[in-house]
């Protein structure tokens, strides 16, 4: 479960202060599918950095699975990112000259997992995204945009994280391909994954549990969807 209490982030430059996140509070239950929506500069990317343990708040607290992440050291934050959070980015961030399987297995290399187990775990993660097995040996630069994003999603899954964070994952894709990628997230959520997607304000056809609307560095509205 995610619980944010009065999260605030302020950047200082001499005597000048810039508030980029202002007193944000919300709760996300395990297995929920949430969209964080808002215009550019609204504070949603800063929130993702805090939720993803990439940064710490100026004030307030952030609990992930009962642990106060806002008070951890840099090394402890790195362990949280490695073990509990999977990231999916708009630009894919794949190794162009590496195979699909190697790209997905890369986090397991850093985790010290033996080669045979790495490959099998990577294969299972790819199957979860609907990637065809015949693509596993292809180089990532031989794939379409939608296929590359599926590889990126599989890489985020490979360490079995409790939370998937996706930062505008369809931003570089056409509408049809973007819908396929978002459907992949929906399928993963139906299997119990907690997923948070950041997006500009737009209509989502997905079965979301919550939509959190951001503007002016704070939450404007939280919509809970009932099906």
Describe this structure in words.
The protein is α/β, with parallel strands linked by helices and 227 residues long. It has a single domain, classed as 3-Layer(aba) Sandwich (Rossmann fold). Helices cover 32% and strands 30% of the residues. It contains 6 helices and 10 strands; from the N terminus they run βββαββαβαααβαβββ. The strands form 2 sheets. A 6-stranded mixed beta sheet has the order 6-7-8-3-9-10, with helices on both faces. The protein has a 4-stranded antiparallel beta sheet with strand order 2-1-4-5, with helices on one face. A hairpin with a 2-residue loop joins strand 4 and strand 5. It starts with a strand and ends with a strand. The mean pLDDT is 88.
**Total domain modules:** 1
Q: Quick one: how many beta strands?
A: 10
| Category from helices, strands and their pairing | alpha/beta
What is the number of helical segments per DSSP (H or I, 4+ residues)?
6
* Relative helix content: 25-40%
Give the strand order of the largest sheet, numbering strands 1, 2, ... along the chain: 6-7-8-3-9-10
CATH domain topology = Rossmann fold
As residue ranges, the low-confidence spans are none
CATH superfamily: P-loop containing nucleotide triphosphate hydrolases
The CATH architecture: 3-Layer(aba) Sandwich
First-to-last CA distance: 21 Å
CATH class: Alpha Beta
Rounded to the nearest angstrom, the radius of gyration is 18 Å
**β-sheet strand percentage:** 25-35%
Largest beta sheet, briefly?
6 strands, mixed
Keywords: ATP-binding, Nucleotide-binding, Transport
Protein name: ABC transporter domain-containing protein
Pfam families: ABC_tran (PF00005)
Domain ABC transporter: 2-225
């Amino acid at each position: 479960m995610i619980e944010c209490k009065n999260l605030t982030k302020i950047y200082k430059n001499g005597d000048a202060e810039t508030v980029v996140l202002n007193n944000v509070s919300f709760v996300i239950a395990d297995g929920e599918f949430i969209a964080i929506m808002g215009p550019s500069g609204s504070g949603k990317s800063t929130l993702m950095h805090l939720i993803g343990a990439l940064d710490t708040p100026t004030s307030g607290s952030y609990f992930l699975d009962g642990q106060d992440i806002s008070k951890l050291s840099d090394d402890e934050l790195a362990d949280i990112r490695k073990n509990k959070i999977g990231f999916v980015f708009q630009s894919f961030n794949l190794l162009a000259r590496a195979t699909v399987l190697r790209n997905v297995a890369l986090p397991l290399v850093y985790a010290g997992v033996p080669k045979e187990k790495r490959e099998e775990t990577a294969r299972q993660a790819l199957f979860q995204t609907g990637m065809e097995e015949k693509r596993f040996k292809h180089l990532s630069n031989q794939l379409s945009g939608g296929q590359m994003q599926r590889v990126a999603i599989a890489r985020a899954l490979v360490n079995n994280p409790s939370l998937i964070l996706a930062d505008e994952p369809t931003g570089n894709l056409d509408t049809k391909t973007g819908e396929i990628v978002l459907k992949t997230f929906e399928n993963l959520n139906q299997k119990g994954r907690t997923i948070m997607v950041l997006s500009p304000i737009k209509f989502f056809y997905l079965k979301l549990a919550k939509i959190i609307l951001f503007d002016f560095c704070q939450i404007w509205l939280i919509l809970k969807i009932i099906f």
